[in-house]
């Protein structure tokens, strides 16, 4: 499975490379490709439509097949204040918010960002579109990859456990 890692201009090349280097440590079934292309946004807070339209534009320009993933890293906040999300249209586009991790987890931010990448890919492989993900999310969190962390500080439990509960494993 191929994953195209993309960044917006507000994400430093060094940080982008750190996330990439961490993801390729494991010789897994993911083939991670760094994109030379960057995406620019004009606003300070992004709409999901802006985010996923940019992913689709890159997909079209670079002729990336629908079964391959595009993961966009951006430090700009999004309208719903989410850490990350899959494309609501069910496409293999994902965004990860790379900012503010120092408020939630006591580690370098490339680690929770890499976690979010893997989490979102797994959710898409579970055939979850955005609504399915919300329907199957755990509220309150229980330390599972499918925890919905409505209070952002709850992400600490989700990431520290690195678990997938029995219910989610069965899906």
Describe what this molecule looks like in 3D.
The chain has 171 residues and is of the alpha/beta class. It has six helices and five strands. It has helices at residues 13-23, 48-61, 110-125, 130-136, 155-161, 166-170, and strands spanning 2-8, 31-39, 69-74, 84-86, 93-97. Strands 2-1-3-5-4 form a five-stranded mixed beta sheet, sandwiched between helices. The longest helix has 16 residues, at 110-125. The two termini are 20 Å apart.
Please supply descriptive tags for the structure shown above:
171 residues; alpha/beta; five-stranded mixed β-sheet; 6 helices; globular
Could you outline the blueprint of secondary structure elements for this entry?
Layout: E1 2-8, H1 13-23, E2 31-39, H2 48-61, E3 69-74, E4 84-86, E5 93-97, H3 110-125, H4 130-136, H5 155-161, H6 166-170
Parallel strand pairs: 1-2, 1-3, 3-5
Antiparallel strand pairs: 4-5
Helix pairs in contact: 1-3
Helix count, DSSP H or I runs of 4 or more residues: 6
How many angstroms does the end-to-end distance come to?
Answer: 20 Å
Low-confidence stretches: none
The largest sheet is: 5 strands, mixed
Measured as a percent range, the helix fraction is: 25-40%
Shape: globular
Task: Calculate Rg over CA atoms.
Answer: 15 Å
- Give the integer mean of the pLDDT values: 93
Strand content: 15-25%
Spatial arrangement of strands, main beta sheet: 2-1-3-5-4
E-strand count: 5
Run of helices and strands: EHEHEEEHHHH
> Structural class of the secondary elements?
alpha/beta
